[in-house]
Amino acid sequence: MRKYNVAVVGATGAVGEEMLDVLAEVNFPIANLVPLASANSAGKTIQFQGEEFQVQELTENSFEENEIEIALFSAGGSISAKYAPFAVEAGAVVIDNTSHFRMESDIPLVVPEVNPEDIEKWRNRGIIANPNCSTIQMVQVLKPLDRRYSIQRVDVSTYQATSGAGKKAMEELAQQMKDFFSFKLDESPHNAFPHQIALNVIPQIDRFMESDFTKEEEKMVYETQKILHKNIEVASTCVRVPVLRGHSESVTITFEKDIDVDEVREILENSPNIVVVDKPSESLYPMPIVANGKNETFVGRIRKDLYRNNILHLWIVADNLRVGAATNAVRIAQKWIELDNE
Ligand code: A2P
C-alpha cells in the first residue's frame, strides 16, 4: 500500500499525543511524519515507533514544504480556521478535531461506524470534521438501535473528564488534589474551569447560549442530527466531573417502536467497536477506569423504562481522548485512504 506524508497539528497536546499513539498502534502507512505545534514547542523531540522526531513550529508553509497529504488538526478552533486552508491549498486532506467547521453544510461530520458514506464529501472543501467527543460515543450506540426501533428523542446527561479541556485542565485537577491534601485547596487557582473542579461537579461546559443550553450541549444536539441525517429531538446536560480521562453518559432513548431489552443487548454486542459490560448482579458496568486507553465504547445499565415499552435507559463510557478524538480521526483517515486507493 502507498504511504502518506502525515502532519499532526497540536502534536504536543492531550489529543495530539494520543493521535501519535494511535497512528503508531495501527501501523498507519506513513512516509514522513511531521509533528507541528506552537513556537514554544519547536525543537522538542517526540518518540514515534522507536524513532525521534523534532516538533516544528506551525506556519502557513508547513504543509507545502513538507508535501503533506493528510493533516490531523487538534490545536484549537482558531488554529484550524487559520491554517486548515493552507493545508488544503497544499493538496492535503484535513481531518479536523475542532468544532470550527463541523456544522458547515458542505463539510462532512463523520463517525466511521455510523456515516462512513459522508467521507466522500471531503472533496467539497478538502476537510472532514471530527465530531465532539460526547457526540461520538453516543451516536455509535444510537445508530444500530435507530435502525431497528427508530429513535424519536434522546435525553442525555454527561459526566465529562477534565482532559476534554486539554492538558492544562488535567494539571489543574491534579494540582487542586495536591492542594487539598496540603490543606491549601481554598487558595488553589482555577483557570481551565469556572469553578474548582477537585471534589466538585460543574454543570457548565463552554459558554451559555441564547437557548439557555451551553455550547457543548447544543453541539450534542446539532451534531447528532447531522451525523444521523435525522431531526430527532435531543436534550443534553453536559457536566464536568473530577475525572482525568473517560466521558460517561446517562442516556434515555425514546423509540417509535417498543423495545426488547435482550434484543437491544444483542444488537449492541454485534455493533462495531462497542463492548457491552452489563452484569449488575456482579457490579459490572462501564466506568472511566474500564475505558481508559481503549478504542471501544462501553455500554451497560441497559434497562427498559418502568412505564413505557418504547423507552430505554443505558450508560455509555468511552475514552474521550481516544474514541472521542484521536481514534475517530485516525479511523476517518484509514477510510479516506481506502477511497484514495479505489
Ligand atoms: P504547544 O504545546 O506548543 O502550546 P491541549 O489541547 O492539550 O491544550 O493542546 C493544544 C495543542 O495545540 C498543543 O500541541 C499546542 O502546542 C498547540 N497549539 C496551541 N497554540 C498553537 C499555535 N498558535 N500554533 C500551533 N499549535 C498551537
Keywords:
2 domains; about 350 residues; binds adenosine-2'-5'-diphosphate; Dihydrodipicolinate Reductase, domain 2; alpha/beta; six-stranded mixed β-sheet
In CATH, the homologous superfamily of the largest domain goes by the name Dihydrodipicolinate Reductase, domain 2
- Helix/strand-derived category reads alpha/beta
Q: If you compute it from the alpha carbons, what radius of gyration comes out, rounded to the nearest whole angstrom? A: 20 Å
Shape: globular
The major pleated sheet works out as:
6 strands, parallel
Listed once per kind, the bound small molecules are: adenosine-2'-5'-diphosphate
pLDDT averaged over residues: 98
Output the helix-strand order: EHEEEEHEHEHEHEHHEEHEHEEH
Broad CATH class of the largest domain: Alpha Beta
Q: Classify the helix fraction into a percent range.
A: 25-40%
What fold name stands as the CATH topology of the largest domain?
Dihydrodipicolinate Reductase, domain 2
Explain what you see.
The structure is a single chain. The protein has 342 residues and is α/β, with parallel strands linked by helices. It folds into two domains: 4-131 and 325-340, 3-Layer(aba) Sandwich (Rossmann fold); 134-320, Dihydrodipicolinate Reductase, domain 2 (2-Layer Sandwich). Helix content is 32%, strand content 24%. The chain has ten helices and 14 strands. It has a six-stranded parallel β-sheet with strand order 5-2-1-6-7-8, with helices on both faces. A hairpin with a 6-residue loop joins strand 13 and strand 14 (311-318). Helix 1 packs across helix 10 (322-340). It is globular. The structure holds adenosine-2'-5'-diphosphate.
